[in-house]
């Protein structure tokens, strides 16, 4: 082993490189040989600076003689696999860059040329069924040099796999850099590493789903008898259906995926991305993508009677994608329409496995404002106005999609909140039906209009206003919003994209408010003029008691002086 400290041009048929780099390195290794063969490159050990990211510290592998060749894959500190990459020709280049953190980085990589499809490459295989056995090439004899064998195990649905190595003897080294067996929790080496093993052991592994991948990689040094393994299955605990959901609103799309479900598809949560590779998930107990509706590469399409938002979850470029069997992806689609259809679809190259439905609508509101500045909304209800007063109304779409247009199709007034048979049209089919209606030019996600308080208020105590709102793609020149006022006959052939209605009210006359206030004040005045019955009774009782006391005093005085006035006490009492 050994190589120049920073980069080299390599022409040997195979070589192992032990690389040690410090901060701010930018080193390129070029492998090329006129052999009409393919190169297999194995990064069996890598140690980057702690907490480094793919943006600042990485290994990039290019499928050709220079860094201008197509990117084949990359390896970072969070790569949860043993990266193995294969060129499409007899040249390959890899570049290692490090950040400014003072730290000694260590890498062990080896490569060899081989001929794809040759008999020497014939190892590994597909295993199906609830149980089975497999072993390394030539077992129990020593395994061959420069072998890369992949076994894909797929058990029945809703089960997990228990893998047991009954006999295991590979070359031993500290980091399992030379010969090793790696086990992945899913359908490929991009599914998340359960473990890497070498030396003498009897390891066991358990999958989180019904698929498992096993890899054997050997170099050109020492060979031993390899391994013999068997697997069995057991039912998965808990609910059978994966914990997967899609939620859409005017503002955002939210996708929740269970880890076991992703593992069954061959996905590893750390390597997932949306159409925009910079949009990555938050990983907790589940894998969650939550993003504004019109961001992260979401594709919007006007379907005539609906608007769809579509994004795709796929694997980010990683260094261990060569064993992936299926070109799998998860497509999330939000359809904003009257029947609120949403879909989450998992697809492969030849079939669709899952489709889930949820509910969601655009969020639209309407409010009155004090003036044509539209800065102070009316916060109280009922809204008291004068007859023929100008009212200012605004419809607002609450959405993060900047390319949506709001259009007022119809506005109707009614004295009944349920809008029965008694109605009055202000706007119909985008056309003003009341000569006081004035619409303002479209402003971002708002639509504004004004009108005078209508004759309904003369005959009814309250009036409500209901408007039908149409939402279109602003980039569509043939949408309902773009066509403006149309006749009833033409309206039937002009499909809307998305429609809802919103209601405000009640609206009442100020004179009714003044009449109510006057009635209350009269009631208060009358109340002041009316004597209090309890108070009257109290005064009457007090007067009676006072007269009684006076009579008693007079009687006492007469008794004391009866000999002077000639009256008897009895006569005084009778009087």
TrEMBL record:
Residue ranges of every copy of the ZP domain listed in the record: 247-488
UniProt cross-references to InterPro entries, sorted A to Z: CUB_dom, Sperma_CUB_dom_sf, ZP-C, ZP-C_dom, ZP-N, ZP_chr, ZP_dom
Membrane-spanning segments: 538-558
The UniProt record lists the keyword Signal: yes
Domain of life: Eukaryota
CDD domains noted in UniProt: CUB
Keywords, alphabetical: Disulfide bond, Glycoprotein, Membrane, Repeat, Signal, Transmembrane, Transmembrane helix
Manganese among keywords: no
Domain CUB: 6-114, 123-234
This protein's name: CUZD1 protein
Gene: Cuzd1_0
């Amino acid at each position: 082993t050994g190589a120049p400290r920073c980069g080299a041009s390599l022409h040997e048929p195979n070589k192992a490189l032990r690389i040690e780099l410090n901060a701010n390195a930018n080193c390129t290794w070029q492998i090329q040989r006129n052999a009409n063969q393919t190169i297999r490159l194995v990064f069996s050990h890598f140690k980057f600076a702690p907490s480094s990211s793919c943006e600042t510290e990485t290994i990039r592998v290019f499928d050709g003689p220079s860094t201008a060749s197509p990117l084949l894959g990359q390896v970072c500190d969070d790569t949860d696999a043993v990266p193995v990459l294969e060129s499409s020709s007899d040249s390959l280049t890899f570049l290692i860059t490090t950040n400014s953190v003072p730290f000694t980085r260590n890498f062990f990589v080896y490569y060899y040329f081989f001929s794809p499809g040759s008999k020497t490459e014939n190892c590994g295989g597909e295993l199906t069924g609830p149980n089975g056995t497999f072993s390394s090439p030539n077992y129990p004899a020593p395994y061959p040099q420069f072998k890369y064998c992949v076994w894909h195990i797929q058990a029945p649905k809703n089960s997990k796999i228990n893998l047991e190595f009954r006999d295991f003897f590979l070359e031993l080294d500290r980091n399992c850099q030379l010969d090793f067996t790696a086990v992945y929790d899913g359908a490929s080496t991009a599914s998340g590493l359960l473990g890497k093993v070498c030396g003498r052991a009897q390891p066991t592994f358990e999958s989180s789903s019904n698929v498992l991948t096993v890899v054997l990689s050997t170099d050109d040094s020492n060979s031993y008898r390899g391994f013999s393994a068997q697997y069995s299955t057991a039912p998965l605990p808990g609910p059978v259906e994966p914990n997967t959901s899609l939620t859409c609103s005017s503002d955002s799309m939210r996708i929740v995926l269970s880890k076991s479900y992703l593992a069954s598809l061959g996905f590893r949560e750390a390597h997932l991305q949306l159409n925009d590779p910079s949009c990555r998930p938050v990983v907790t107990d589940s894998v969650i993508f939550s993003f504004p509706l019109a961001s992260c590469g979401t594709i919007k399409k006007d379907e005539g009677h609906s608007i769809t938002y579509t994004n795709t979850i796929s694997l980010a470029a990683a260094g261990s994608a060569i064993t992936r069997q299926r070109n799998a992806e998860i497509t999330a689609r939000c359809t904003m329409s009257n029947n609120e259809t949403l879909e989450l679809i998992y697809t492969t190259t030849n079939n669709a496995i899952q489709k889930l439905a949820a509910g969601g609508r655009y969020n639209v509101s309407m409010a009155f404002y004090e003036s044509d500045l539209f800065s102070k909304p009316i916060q109280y209800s009922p809204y008291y106005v004068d007859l023929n007063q100008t009212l200012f109304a605004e419809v607002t779409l609450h959405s993060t999609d900047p390319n949506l247009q709001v259009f007022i199709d119809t506005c109707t007034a009614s004295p009944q909140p349920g809008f029965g048979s008694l109605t009055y049209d202000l706007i119909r089919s985008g056309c003003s039906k009341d000569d006081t209606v004035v619409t303002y030019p479209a402003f971002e996600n708002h639509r504004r209009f004004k009108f005078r308080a209508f004759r309904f208020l003369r005959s009814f105590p309250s009036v409500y206003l209901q408007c039908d709102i149409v939402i279109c793609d602003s980039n569509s020149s043939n949408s309902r919003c773009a066509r403006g006022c149309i006749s009833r006959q033409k309206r039937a052939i002009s499909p809307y994209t998305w429609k809802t209605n919103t209601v405000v009210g009640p609206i009442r006359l100020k004179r009714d408010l003044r009449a109510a206030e006057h009635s209350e004040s009269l009631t208060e005045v009358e109340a002041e003029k009316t004597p209090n019955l309890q108070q009257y009774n109290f005064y009457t009782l007090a007067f009676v008691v006072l007269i009684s006391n006076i009579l008693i005093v007079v009687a006492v005085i007469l008794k004391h002086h009866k000999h002077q006035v000639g009256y008897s006490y009895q006569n005084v009492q009778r009087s």
